[in-house]
Amino acid sequence: MRMARREAVAGTALLLGAAAGAGVPLAAPGRRGAWKALAREVRDELAWAWDHYRRLAWGKDEIKPISGGSSSFPLKNHHLGLSLVEALDTLWVMGLDDRFEEGLHWVLEHLRFDVDGEVSVFETSIRLVGGLLSAHHACGDPALLAKARDLADRLLPAFDTPTGMPWRFVNLATGKPRESVTSPADIATYLPEWGMLSLRTGDPRYARSAKRAAQAVFARRSGLDLVATQIDVLSGEWRSRRATVGSYCDSFFEYLWDGWQLLGDPDCRRMYQICVRAILKHQQRWQDGSLWFADVDFETGALVSSEQDELAAFFGGLLAQGGAPREGAAYTESWAKVQARYGVLPEGYDYATGKATQVGNALRPELADACFNLWLLDRRPRWREIARDHFLTMRRWNKAPFGYADLADVTSQPKRQADHCPGYWWSEQMKYYYLLFADTLRFDYRRNYLSTEGNVLLGFRRPGG
Ligand code: IFL
Q: Which are the catalytic amino acids?
């Protein structure tokens, strides 16, 4: 896609503003065209990466963006077109219709789930069931819904436990489950996708299983109303004492809120409010004017660690959605400061020492996710600016010969890349940036829902529809 000269200049001005860290008043009246030009740059990057994927890794799960090879996930040694499925609704909302159609064609012709192999129930649901549902929402093709349902049916045996909490892995062909010790996020990140599946198919089993699993985690919260990172789904006993808003627990909280936001379930809202009130009470810490959430013992509230997962950066958006906008904004600003310091966020950061504790970056979308949700709520230009910097630094550092790559070290000069592009890159940050900047008619900015994987399950508008 070529830009008109006026737009190109506007895009460059944005670039310079960010590179100089000059705090250019980007959202001032008259700068609307500049944001739209930036949206086109985002779309161009996605189209460029798709064309490499199309040429070098068509139907594979993940392209290796440095070597041009490929890797499989969530199955070992078998591909399900993960990146392609994750990209579909992003292509659609960007108006890359020819590419959407070629991806859709591949799904309808080649995607089969009767594979004798084991998958993570959680990852397969958020990425593939969610990806198929959002593509169905985009174009309405009933075959996509049938495929989402077929896959969910293969995951359902995992929920057959005494507690209702699912096993961590399941075999797609045999339904044989494995690994009973798992996390709140693995157990309870289903309601929006499975709720939509129940609504669209009329089969209540999906929503019922998802809600029962979430309630089972919530019922086992401590006297402080906190949950920990590991639990045994057969005995219902906790196997860890660490409460965190990061990895292992993050999307448990997110999907409690989403069960209310998307499905209007008041039980979910109540569970969310109880959990988040406890987090604000027992985990909130202020350090040098920045808000962080410490890991604490889930029964005593004693400090366990001041290390933060980058994954927790989404939490600012969720806090604001759930009725704590000041804390949500403050927490997002804390991460924005880390971004300003490193350019690209490290996977781990310790707020007490001010140091990166895990120096890699797995091409993460969480800060852009928070900015998107905050901006939907208050339209403050600040959230667009943080997301713009997220995009521009990603384009500077993570862009590789055949796509976008993880970083092995964000602290090295120059930053060192790693030969991997996760499937969520296609579904998440590129879509958040685009929706933030484009003001597209294909999306309803007032009534919408994006899943933890960025899949749009509500809010698409079909042209002429
Ligand atoms: O799969 C992605 C999703 O956002 C999630 N957790 C981690 C991934 C992105 O970092 O829920």
A: 123, 250, 347, 366
- Ligand 1 centre from 273 Cα, in Å? 22
Q: Which of 316, 336, 308, 340 is nearest to 21 (CA)?
A: 340
| Dist. CA 256–CA 189, nearest whole Å | 9
Closest-CA residue to 227 (of 205, 244, 209): 244
Q: Whose CA is nearest to atom 10 of ligand 1?
A: 364
Cβ of 365 less than 6 Å from ligand 1 = yes
The tens digit of pLDDT for each residue in 26-57 reads 444 457 799 999 999 999 999 999 999 999 99
pTM reported for the whole predicted model: 0.94
Amino acid 94 reads M
Ranges of residues in the chain with a pLDDT under 50 are: 1-29
So what's the architecture of 4-458 in CATH?
Alpha/alpha barrel (1.50)
Residue length, the chain?
A: 465
452 Cβ inside 6 Å of ligand 1: yes
Domain boundaries along the sequence of the chain: 4-458
Q: How far is the CA of 370 from the centre of ligand 1 (A)?
A: 13
b/e string for 355-384 if b means 16 or more Cβ within 10 A? ebeebbbbbbbbbbbbbbbbbbeeeeebbb
